[in-house]
């Protein structure tokens, strides 16, 4: 769970940014808890009451207490060097004023979803936050750490989640699963199999052999695209 604060005195900005972050978190299977504040004073009061955040998106140009003052309060008065601060501004010339606060990043208004996503993913990589695959079974919402999933397997109208510790099943489609995991290291090698590339021991043109010695076929229609994808990943060091 990543605890995120959004602080901006413009409600349209807080609403836009909250929606962007929610969509990004769904796309990358990350749990987030978002708090929205419309003044620096409200944010500081909340933190002073014993609450903490992992990541703060903080507007600079706010009335009464601006974002630079809030950042100084967090870093100097509270001696908090762990909370990461991403500044938001309509201007791009605050470099020297922000130097002592050591911001994690800087976003210029108007906000762009792609740039917010880049900042979010950079934060995830820098802080090694766990990612989860969510699924629903018997009316209950469940989740499994992505790093523990070896592959997904089609089983009629069910999907089997094969992990290091066993197998879980839920009703769903492989296409729906792939939409959730395609950007986080999984490949769709066959209509019945979506595999985690971290668990590939040996890749052959027509099949893969996983670390648990399981052999899975690559469908003929996907062989060229899978080869290109794996070769591209290897070049990037993935």
Structure summarized in a few sentences:
This protein is α/β, with parallel strands linked by helices. The chain has helices spanning 11-27, 40-48, 67-77, 95-98, 113-127, 174-181, 223-235, and strands at 2-7, 32-37, 55-59, 84-89, 105-108, 132-137, 140-145, 149-155, 158-163, 166-171, 186-190, 193-196, 200-204, 207-210, 215-217.
Percentage of residues in DSSP E strands? 25-35%
Rg (CA only): 22 Å
Number of domains: 2
Structural class: alpha/beta
**SSE succession:** EHEHEHEHEHEEEEEHEEEEEH
Percent helix: 25-40%
The largest sheet is: 5 strands, parallel
Strand order of the largest sheet: 2-1-3-4-5
Topology:
Blueprint: E1 2-7, H1 11-27, E2 32-37, H2 40-48, E3 55-59, H3 67-77, E4 84-89, H4 95-98, E5 105-108, H5 113-127, E6 132-137, E7 140-145, E8 149-155, E9 158-163, E10 166-171, H6 174-181, E11 186-190, E12 193-196, E13 200-204, E14 207-210, E15 215-217, H7 223-235
Parallel strand pairs: 1-2, 1-3, 3-4, 4-5
Antiparallel strand pairs: 6-7, 8-9, 8-12, 9-10, 11-12, 13-14, 14-15
């Amino acid at each position: 769970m990543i605890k995120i604060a959004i602080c901006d005195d413009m409600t349209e900005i807080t609403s836009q940014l909250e929606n962007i972050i929610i969509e990004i978190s769904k796309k990358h299977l990350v749990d987030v808890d978002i708090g929205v504040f419309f003044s620096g004073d409200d944010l500081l009061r909340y933190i002073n009451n014993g609450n903490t955040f992992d990541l703060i998106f903080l507007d600079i140009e706010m009335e009464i207490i601006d974002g630079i003052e809030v950042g100084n309060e967090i870093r100097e008065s509270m001696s908090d060097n762990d909370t990461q601060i991403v500044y938001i501004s309509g201007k791009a010339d605050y470099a020297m004023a922000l130097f002592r606060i050591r911001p994690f990043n800087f976003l210029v208004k108007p906000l762009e979803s792609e740039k917010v996503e880049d900042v979010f993913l950079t934060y995830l990589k820098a802080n090694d936050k766990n990612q989860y695959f969510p699924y629903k079974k018997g009316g209950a919402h469940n989740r499994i750490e992505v790093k523990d999933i070896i592959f997904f397997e089609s089983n009629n109208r069910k999907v089997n989640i094969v992990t290091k510790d066993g197998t879980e099943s839920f009703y769903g489609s492989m296409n729906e699963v792939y939409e959730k995991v395609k950007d986080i290291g999984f490949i769709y090698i066959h209509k019945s199999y979506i595999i985690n590339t971290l668990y590939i021991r040996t890749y052959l043109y027509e099949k893969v052999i996983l670390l648990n010695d399981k052999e899975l076929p690559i469908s003929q229609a996907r062989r060229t695209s899978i080869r290109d994808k794996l070769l591209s990943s290897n070049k990037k060091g993935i």
